[in-house]
Amino acid sequence: MDNARQVASEAAAQIADRLGGGFAATVVLGTGWDDAFAELGELEAQIPTTELAGFPATRVEGHGGTVGAVAAGDRRLLVYRGRVHLYEGNSAAAVSHGVRAAAAAGCEAAVLTNAAGGLRPHYRVGAAVLISDHLNLTGASPVEGTEWGTDRFVNLVDSYSPRLRALAAEVAPGTPEGVYAGLRGPHFETPAEIQMLRSMGADLVGMSTVLEAIAARHCGMETLGVSLVTNLAAGMSDEGPSHQEVLDAGAASGTAVGRLLRGVIDRL
Ligand code: HPA
Q1: Pocket mutation for ligand 1, best pick of 231, 236, 237, 239 (most atoms within 8 Å of C-beta)
Q2: Which residues lie across from 129 on neighbouring strands?
Q3: Which of 1, 5, 57, 222 is the most buried (most CB within 10 A)?
Q4: Three-state DSSP class for 32?
Q5: Mutate to test the pocket of ligand 1, among 86, 120, 134, 188 (most ligand atoms within 8 A of CB)
Q6: What three-state secondary structure class fits 182?
Q7: Does residue 119 line the site of ligand 1, with CB under 6 A?
Q8: Taking the mean position of all CA atoms in its chain, how far away is CA 161?
Q9: Which range has the top average pLDDT, 5-19, 137-151, 240-254?
Q10: Is residue 116 predicted with pLDDT exceeding 90?
Q11: How far apart are CA 70 and CA 75, in angstroms?
């Protein structure tokens, strides 16, 4: 067994021990998604991820760093509040470890959320956008050095499940879709970089999710990606993006986007 798989099974055994099992899906709540948590269901138990094998400390303000069991109707969810980022100096393996641990704990679907800058002038700050595809511009892969699954040359076509996107559109008709460009950060982009990203086909820009989505596909999980547009990307408004603006947009829209997630979960 390779190391990533070994550590994921260790974490999954600890999750089973402390939070139980029978999880239908894992949900990763990114920056700005804290207020969505209450909409998912009833929290049954929760632990700091640092008490589980393989998780580094998370340090960014607005990132909780816990994993909990949540009852959403008759389904159980494994919910991460806060995630591990490359920009904290972590490896691609560490960034995708939570998703791998969830797969090892039996989750068949992954709902990955994030805060993103919008590259389309018609995106409203505070609105949810369904990720239709991504540009992985991190220069990293969670598959490197692993032998997880049967296929190291992972097929990423339809990584963001058309079925789950259709369920989300049923819950919230008219929710736009977009291509998410994942960069390493933690600096925001320059206006020139945003122009470049737009010409490459990006609609959203952020510093997470892409490695987790690759790992989820590698582990055979069906993935839904949802971005909360927290700001217009650099050069598109008078002010540049700021972390406070990202947190404020999350606080203003968390409840509504949380309901969207719960609606999809009810239809899984
Ligand atoms: N750029 C990168 N990451 C982000 C942004 C942005 O504008 N907004 C929220 N996360």
Answers
A1: 231
A2: 227
A3: 222
A4: coil
A5: 188
A6: strand
A7: no
A8: 14
A9: 5-19
A10: yes
A11: 8
Residue type, 1: M
Q: Is the C-beta atom of 133 inside 6 A of ligand 1? A: no
- Residue reference for tokens 């990293």: 140
> Is the Cβ–Cβ distance between 77 and 26 less than 8 Å?
yes
Q: What is the mean pLDDT of residues 170-189?
A: 96
Look at residue 59 and tell me whether its pLDDT is greater than 70.
no
From the list 213, 260, 267, 266, the residue with the least C-alpha distance to 28 is 213
Cα 183 to middle of ligand 1, angstroms: 9
Say whether pTM exceeds 0.90: yes
The rounded distance, in Å, linking the Cα atoms of 46 and 15 is 10
For residues 226 and 178, give the distance between their C-alpha atoms in angstroms, rounded to a whole number: 10
First to last CA, the chain: 31
pLDDT(250) > 80: no
Q: Answer yes or no: is the C-beta of 241 below 6 A from any ligand 1 atom.
A: yes
**114 alpha carbon to ligand 1 midpoint, in Å?**
9
Q: Residue 155 in 3-state DSSP?
A: coil
How many Å apart are CA 246 and CA 250, to the nearest integer? Answer: 6
Q: Is the CB of 116 under 6 A from ligand 1?
A: yes
pLDDT (tens digit per residue) in 8-17: 999 999 999 9
Give the closest residue to 251 by CA, choosing from 74, 117, 66, 62: 62
Residue 115 CB less than 6 A away from ligand 1: yes
Q: Whose CA is closest to atom 5 on ligand 1?
A: 117
